[in-house]
# Entry
Amino acid sequence: MQRITILGATGSIGVSTLDVLARHPERYSVYALSAHSRVEELAAQCERFRPARAVVGSAAAAEQLGALLRAKGLRTEVEYGEQALCAIASAAEVDAVMAAIVGAAGLAPTLAAARAGKKVLLANKEALVMSGQLFMDAVQDSGAVLLPIDSEHNAIFQCLPHGYGRAPEAAGVAKVLLTASGGPFLTRAVETLDAVTPEQACKHPNWVMGRKISVDSATMMNKGLEVIEAHWLFGAPADQIEVVIHPQSVIHSMVSYVDGSVLAQLGNPDMRTPIAHALAWPERIASGVEQLDLTRMGGLQFERPDFERFPCLALAFDALRAGGTAPALLNAANEVAVQAFLDQRIGFRQIDRVIAHVMDAVPHGAASSIAAVMAQDAAARVAAQTYIAGHAK
Ligand code: NDP
Ligand code: MG
# Structure
């Protein structure tokens, strides 16, 4: 029996994870769940999965959750705040941690799980983008097992017979091919993009996801963050990572080898497949996802990304090449800009301008410690907010 903590249980990935766990009660039990403010959803999850501990974002939310749980006669211990998140991620009772908090808020608890040598199922790509080498060093030092949930990276992992631990050259890898759907605005006239609404941006053609990653998919910053994520997970330099637009989202990514072989992982676009893969690895378990019916597919298309339509993708490659804390700056500026877009304070095309401004205005340095990374994150947020205040609609 494996005991699982889910950080971000009420989110899109959290809910899909609980769906997979519920199919295998003989294999998994839930040790702890966390949410930020959706207390009623978390209370319902506690009632169904009976965790020992539950963590929320504030004292008020904890009080509300405690009252709801007592009314249901549950004895789940309720806590709040970052330290409590780190505690449920690193507790001795935990075998595996699903890191599914969105954004930089997930860094500390995800890192705590890695430092404690847990099996870390990584959905929270922002944590790895921010802290890159520091995070990978923590995994190495503690002997943690890091498994990617992001569908592309999970696909690449499945296409690397040697898994991690070998330099890409030694494994004969020529290129890592990250597929991208291109999001909802792949073919929309570029000059009309500034008029799009948050609802239009969040309406992804193939995937149902949280709002932040949905906007990231529309700008293709999501793919940019994934390029940086692939760099750290698989040790591939920027030049070895190629983005391929594939609107059907059936091939989740590929690895091409020096002998001309290309390995791909295919499946219906449903996050329960990579979640089940990572949970059970190296075994396989049912996920509830329907088998792919290739005969019902019209055809698979591929094209090169247009970096002018998607400037965020270019900014991410620049940040990866710049190294140090540049990816942390990129990530923080993006988080602030996306929130401003969702709040309708800036237009869609201003997202990349905010990020470009922050990358220019805030000097980046060496990512020598988590404190240095967090200081850059804070500086980038201030610069982004100031820029937005001066350029708001
Ligand atoms: P959601 O917005 O659906 O869920 C986010 C979760 O994090 C919720 O449980 C939320 O709690 C919690 N949360 C939000 N803010 C904070 C905070 N400041 N502190 C602590 N917890 C917080 O996001 P997704 O599930 O879509 O994405 C989660 C992560 O997985 C992201 O990093 C994303 O990039 C990645 N990912 C997601 C995919 C998807 O298909 N959705 C695919 C690949 C990667 P509450 O509900 O209370 O607000
Ligand atoms: Mg992805």
The radius of gyration is 20 Å.
